[in-house]
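Pipeline run #58 for the internal structure catalog. This entry was flagged by the ingest filter as a single-chain record with no existing model, so it goes straight to prediction. Upstream metadata was stripped on purpose; only the residue string is passed forward. Reviewer on rotation: M.T. Logging verbosity set to normal.
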Amino acid sequence: MEDVSTPSFPPAPRGQLGYDQDEVDRALRVARARYDNFDNGSDGKRLTTSSIRHTAFTMRKGGYSAPHVDAALERLEDAVAMRERDEKIERIGREAFLRETKTTAREVLARLQRTDGERFDRVSVLQRGYDVREVDAFADRLVTFLRGGTPLSLREVRGVAFTPKRGGYRESQVDLLIDAVVDVMLAIR
């Protein structure tokens, strides 16, 4: 049995905030239990790639090193994605799964190929959204990747961050598209 008094991750470097240790430990205990009972997630509390991707922790002094925890969550998301993919292929068949994945990729590509400055809705000039130029530049990288050009890693897509700017792109739309790209990348691994 694992010694619960030993920290799961190294602490954040001195002078930096890290993820709240209790929150991380609790979230990973729940994730492990749900992963171990993956086939019995009929109670609506099933572990999914989306639930992992949207896990967030409070930043605290003396917290766990964020890069170490993030890397563990990425590994967990990869493992769950493989299970989800295999389960879906078993349910609908490989051909239908590939068609569905290609359809999603085409929809994402269509959105990304819109004109710079018009890819997503904008928030008002009194609100902050994602910096339009930064998002458009990343969108261009995604287009190149999806067309079979320059490689792009899952880590780069998962970790992309944009500067908040007044009148920027609506964050929720950009985030949903990034999630769709991650889903496509996980599906074709």
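catalog note: The helical segments are 21-36, 49-53, 66-92, 94-112, 132-146, 154-158, 171-187.
catalog note: The beta strands are 17-19, 59-61, 128-130, 164-166.
status: ready for reviewer M.T.
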